[in-house]
């Protein structure tokens, strides 16, 4: 008995050559719809599936392959195949299918009818049937696998092809369920907490990385449907730590997407953040905050990097420079550092800010999922709780410092003045410890500066330390049982204090 192949593909790239290859290997071909027409146009002998099932395509082509004579031929094992002849059914030895392109329409402006139209039913069923019977059926779900030596295929290859087919259908179903979950969220969402009953993501490997945070840890980069657009202009590929650090830099940059800003990151922590009249001014102010820590750091800009800035960057060792744009002269200058990763961010920073709406962390207790901390700061809602009132310049520094504090580990303290950070500290186990370290880094420049805290003050010792270093104003969420004591001391010491009602813990 001749071998038989079933071919039904939406993406017809390479299918003609593959069909010729199958015919040369002794396969008879059964096909459907547009695939059958294409094969016929190219003088490839094929049997239309309707000639086997005895049914024409029904309901505008939605039902073509869903028939016992097709699926029995795919699913039968060797013993069962011996009985198929009595039913007038010839078994299939190969199934080649790719699916309707649902993924092209998800997350876009496609109407629901277009989405539903592009949900494949028969194709998914064919792939699953072929993969289930991998010992007897070769299942081709990827155009790349047209190159396989069909005449000399071993069991391991069959197993791999079956796994790939199940992965394809799993990813396909995941895309559909996720998209419809978004579209129909009113019915599946707990309105009280704004968290859906089902959340998931599908990881598809983009590339292996040299290693993870440390050389003994394996690591890879995966695509989970949402990925910013960027391009490498120079240097080596990202490392695991580069990706984390660059993400931290962009997260802060997106807070200041509409002004000239520079952010310098080391080990995911900012060591210098500044706004400037020009981008060069912002760079110089950010670097002045902590030039020692900036060595080997990651630098993000909110505007176009020019030659003058590039000269400053190449004068020191940096790992990554990322910006929305670079002049040609800047690129040439930066390329003098062959290992410096120069990255152009093509996704606008104002879009990046809202690119992901959820954050997930895996713990032994389960997966933690929360909304991203994207609440906008509105100075109109600030509450001045002291007798002394802030000047407009102080309010601007307060907003700037509080936005930066959001991106440090708790307990986060930011000392800022003239729209630049002077001292930063986070990740300490006591808030007063963070205050002391941040002020120590400021040295003698704290006079008239702003202190921002991501959480409320649990004791008055924080205010005492700040006042000793001549801090002029404090911005904090408020809400402590010690608020009255803290405010009373701030008044006594002549400080300005503003509360936001917004806490920015980051663990």
Tell me what you see in this structure.
- By secondary structure, the chain is an alpha/beta fold.
- 36% of the residues lie in helices and 22% in strands.
- The chain has 19 helices and 25 strands.
- The strands form seven sheets. A six-stranded mixed β-sheet has the order 10-17-15-13-11-12, with helices on both faces. Strands 20-25-24-23-21-22 form a six-stranded mixed β-sheet, with helices on both faces.
- Strand 6 (189-190) and strand 7 form a beta hairpin.
- Helix 7 (122-132) packs antiparallel against helix 8 (155-183).
- The protein is elongated.
Major beta-sheet overview: 6 strands, mixed
Helix content: 25-40%
The parts where pLDDT drops under 50 for at least 5 residues are: none
Side-by-side strand order of the widest sheet: 10-17-15-13-11-12
* Integer-rounded radius of gyration: 31 Å
Mean pLDDT metric: 91
Structural class: alpha/beta
- As an assembly, this protein is single chain
Shape: elongated
Number of helices: 19
Roughly how many Å apart are the termini? 66 Å
* Strand percentage: 15-25%
- How many extended strands? 25
């Amino acid at each position: 008995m001749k071998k038989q192949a079933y071919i039904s593909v939406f993406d017809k790239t390479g299918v003609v050559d593959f069909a010729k290859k199958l015919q040369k290997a002794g396969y008879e071909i059964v096909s459907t719809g547009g695939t059958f027409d294409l094969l016929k146009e190219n003088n490839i002998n094929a049997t239309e599936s309707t000639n086997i099932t005895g049914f024409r395509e029904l309901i505008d082509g939605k039902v073509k392959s869903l028939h016992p004579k097709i699926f029995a031929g795919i699913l039968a094992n060797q013993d069962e195949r011996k009985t198929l002849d009595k039913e007038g059914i010839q078994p299939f030895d190969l199934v080649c299918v790719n699916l309707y392109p649902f993924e092209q329409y998800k997350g876009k402006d496609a109407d629901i009818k277009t989405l539903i139209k592009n949900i494949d039913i028969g194709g998914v069923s064919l792939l699953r049937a072929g993969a289930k019977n991998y010992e007897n059926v070769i299942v081709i779900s990827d155009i790349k696998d047209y190159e396989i030596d069909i005449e000399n295929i071993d069991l391991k290859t069959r197993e791999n092809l079956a796994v790939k087919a199940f992965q394809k259908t799993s990813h396909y179903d995941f895309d559909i369920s996720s998209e419809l979950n978004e579209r129909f969220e009113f019915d599946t969402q707990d309105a009280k907490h704004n968290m859906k009953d089902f959340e998931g993501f599908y990881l598809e490997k983009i590339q292996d990385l040299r290693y993870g945070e440390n050389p003994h840890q394996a690591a890879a980069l995966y695509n989970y449907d949402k990925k910013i657009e960027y391009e490498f202009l120079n240097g080596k590929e990202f490392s695991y730590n580069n990706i984390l650090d660059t993400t931290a830099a962009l997260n802060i940059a997106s807070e200041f997407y509409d002004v000239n800003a520079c952010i310098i990151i080391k080990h995911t922590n900012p060591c210098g953040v500044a706004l400037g009249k020009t981008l060069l001014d912002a760079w110089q102010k950010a670097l002045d905050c902590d030039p020692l820590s900036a060595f080997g750091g990651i630098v993000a800009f909110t505007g176009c990097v020019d030659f003058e800035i590039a000269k400053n960057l190449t004068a020191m060792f940096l790992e990554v420079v990322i910006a929305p744009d670079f002049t040609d002269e800047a690129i040439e200058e930066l390329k003098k550092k062959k290992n410096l990763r120069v990255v152009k961010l093509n996704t606008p920073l104002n879009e990046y800010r809202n690119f992901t709406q959820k954050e997930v962390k895996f713990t032994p207790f389960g997966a933690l999922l929360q909304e991203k901390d994207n609440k906008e700061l509105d100075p109109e809602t600030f509450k001045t709780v002291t007798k002394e009132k802030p000047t407009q310049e102080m309010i601007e520094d307060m907003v700037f410092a509080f936005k930066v504090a959001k991106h440090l580990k708790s307990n986060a303290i930011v000392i800022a003045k003239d729209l630049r950070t002077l001292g930063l500290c986070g990740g300490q186990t006591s808030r007063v410890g963070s205050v002391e370290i941040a002020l120590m880094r400021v040295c003698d420049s704290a006079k008239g500066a702003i202190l921002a805290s991501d959480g409320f003050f649990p004791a008055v010792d924080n205010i005492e330390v700040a006042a000793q270093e001549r801090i002029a104003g404090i911005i904090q969420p408020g809400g402590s049982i010690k608020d009255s004591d803290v405010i009373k001391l701030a008044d006594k010491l002549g400080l300005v204090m503003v509360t936001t009602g917004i806490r920015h813990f980051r663990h």
